[in-house]
Amino acid sequence: MTVSPLAWGVTIVVILALLAFDYFFHIRKAHIPTLKEAAIWSSIYVGLALVFGGVVWVLGGAQMGTEYFAGYITEKALSVDNLFVFLIIMASFRVPREDQQKVLLFGIVFSLIARTAFILLGAALINSFSWVFYIFGLILLITAGNLLKPESTEGDDEANNFIIRLARKIFHTSENYDGDKLFTMENGKRVLTPMLLVMVAIGGTDILFALDSIPAIFGLTQNVFIVFTATAFSLMGLRQLYFLIDGLLDRLIYLSYGLATILAFIGVKLVLHALHENTLPFINGGEHVPVIEITTGLSLSVIVGVLVVTVIASLVSPAGKAMTAVNNARRHADAYLDLTYTADPAERERVYKALCDEEQDILKMDLKYRDKVKDIEEIRETVARAHSEHERYLSR
User: Fold this and answer.
1) pLDDT tens digits for 138-177?
2) Which backbone phi and psi does 173 adopt, to 5 degrees?
3) Which of 154, 170, 153, 152 is nearest to 162 (CA)?
4) Phi and psi (nearest 5°) for 190?
5) Sign (positive/negative) of CA torsion 139, 144, 149, 153?
6) Number of other residues whose CB lies within 10 A of the CB of residue 93
7) Strand residues in the chain grouped as ranges (E)
8) In a 10 Å sphere around its CB, with 0-12 CB exposed, 13-18 middle and 19+ buried, how is residue 127 labelled?
């Protein structure tokens, strides 16, 4: 179905209006979103995405609607996985809790711009060269394989990349934040703040994410309007989702396996489609290869099914519960000990209470699960230091 320029214009205006609303009514004044606020706005953005999908289904037909929902769910799942990296980056730069919203909104806007550019490039390549489906499929299969590799934490610093090191050498940079300002005055000189550097790091990772996500959604639909809107709506509300599931991300211990399965499935779908449309002379003499093509309906069923199984398996797994509780205890202990984490006493009290609650949950768990968590002794020492610091705070 051909989408009219009017529909394109209205859609883009709506997306820009949502971003502007997010900034002027939520981000402009730095604050820490409550769980209730994050839950309400996450629900609103998901609701808007579903309503838009319903409109597409009614006006564009069942095929177009199915493609939108398959693309939206896939991109949303990949976006949730991206939150892990955002969390690591902001922890590496020690971004104050109340200023993290601004960083996340920048990441969403930059990601939307980067992915739009990749969408236009991908559409142009597909229209000109059908063999590009082979490349897209190979990218997804390699990405799926990388997701199955054990993660290495030694020397892993997502924020310490080449661009950041170069920026620190060339420009004057401050070691301390000045609210959410990008520049500040230090010793009479105008210098960059870590806020600008963390935005550069987020932007750099967004480009890498686009390399995975755009081939994935092109594997489900080649309708540029659907690709763009499914991607855009999957990014809307990502900021609120971050604060809603922050602390629960570690609980999804099998998410990488689920995403690997989905990306591998779409990768195979792309290769089959490439064979069906084949024009390469060294494959079947340049003729189309008669292969089974996977329907969009089947794709949507597989994607939803894999995500449901992944989430349920992660939530009910005793090992997952232990890993989540222990890692959250470490994270909250580190946050409490880090005096630059936030200037809000109420937030520090919330962090300490969360730490105590998690310790109680850990004590109820089977030793064989909690003692297998990596760096468990180091975590215990960090938690003990947090308790000592709290006792000193109370004795003042």
Assistant:
1) 988 988 888 787 554 443 444 445 555 666 666 677 777 7
2) -125, 145
3) 170
4) -85, 120
5) positive
6) 21
7) 183-186, 189-192
8) exposed
